[in-house]
Design a protein that fits this description.
The protein has one helix at about 30-50. It is mostly helical.
C-alpha cells in the first residue's frame, strides 16, 4: 500500500449585487461570477502546488 484516500466536500454560495454592471463604476461592482472565478483559480493554484498529494475537483450543481 502506498497511500490512503480521504474526501472533503464543501458547498459554497457566492452572492453578488444587482448593480454590478451598467452605470456602476468598475471598482464598486460585486459580480458573483467573477468572485467565483477568482475562488476557482485560487483553489487550482493551491492544489497544483501540492504535486500529486491532492486532487481538487470543482463542480456546479
Amino acid at each position: 500500500m502506498s497511500g490512503i484516500q480521504g474526501t472533503r466536500r464543501y458547498r459554497v454560495r457566492v452572492a453578488g449585487e444587482a448593480a454590478h454592471a451598467g452605470t456602476a463604476v468598475r471598482h464598486a461592482r460585486r459580480n458573483a461570477l467573477m468572485a467565483a472565478v477568482r475562488m476557482i483559480v485560487a483553489i487550482d493554484r493551491a492544489a497544483s502546488g501540492l504535486a500529486d498529494a491532492i486532487v481538487a475537483k470543482l463542480a456546479h450543481r
